[in-house]
Amino acid sequence: MESAGLLREAFGRIRGSVHAVLDDISVDQLTFRVGDRANSISWLIWHLTRIQDDHVAGVAGTEQVWVAEGWAERFELPFGPLATGYGQDPHEAAAVDAGAVLLLGYHEAVHHQTVAFIAGLNDADLDRIVDESWDPPVTLGVRLVSVIEDDLQHLGQAAYIRGLSA
User: Fold this and answer.
1) How far apart are CA 64 and CA 57, in angstroms?
2) 154 neighbors 42 (Cβ within 8 angstroms)
3) Per-residue model confidence as pLDDT tens digits over 144-160
């Protein structure tokens, strides 16, 4: 399997897990927080999708789906259109109370853009430096693996919370 196929498989598994977490979920489960400082499933799915959108758009040189396709307006969140959830306080995180249909729609749009970008990659592309602000500089391959890791961590958290809130 070439790298593009491996990446497509990884992002496909993220997509499948997002669907599994959101399948037949109630509004109460989506917004359930195990504590005052904890994140909800709604926030976790929104955030992991925002990070994927932000980071893939950044390395692909495209506009984020969040803005380009009007998802920011549909979600009607009380923070700027480029917010990804990084560094938000518990009060801000609690403001993300999107429903499953909206979360799934946004994730599907981001997944489609991610897979389209990956389809055009070859193994040599993964060595391209995409961020020189780190030591060592970050390659495209490392950035994509970082997105996958972040998404999977948040999916595990969301699945755990779903189990607690059932």
Assistant:
1) 5
2) no
3) 999 999 999 999 999 99
**Domain residue ranges of the chain, discontinuous segments joined by +:** 3-165
Query: Which residues does 69 contact at the CB level (< 8 Å), separation at least 6?
Result: 109
Q: Do the Cβ atoms of 99 and 27 come closer than 8 Å?
A: yes
Q: DSSP 3-state assignment of 81?
A: coil
pLDDT of 44-99, one tens digit each?
A: 999 999 999 999 999 999 999 999 999 999 999 999 999 999 999 999 999 999 99
**What phi, psi does 139 have (nearest 5°)?**
-90, 165
Any idea which residue has 């599907």 for tokens? Answer: 108
Task: State which amino acid sits at residue 69.
Answer: E
Through-space distance between the first and last CA atoms of the chain, rounded to whole angstroms: 39
The pair of structure tokens assigned to 152 is: 């999977």
Pairwise CA distance, residues 73 & 94, whole Å: 18
- Identify which of 58, 156, 42, 163 has the alpha carbon closest to the alpha carbon of residue 106: 42
Q: What's the predicted TM-score (pTM) here? A: 0.96
Q: Is 3-165 a CATH 1.20.120.450 domain? A: yes
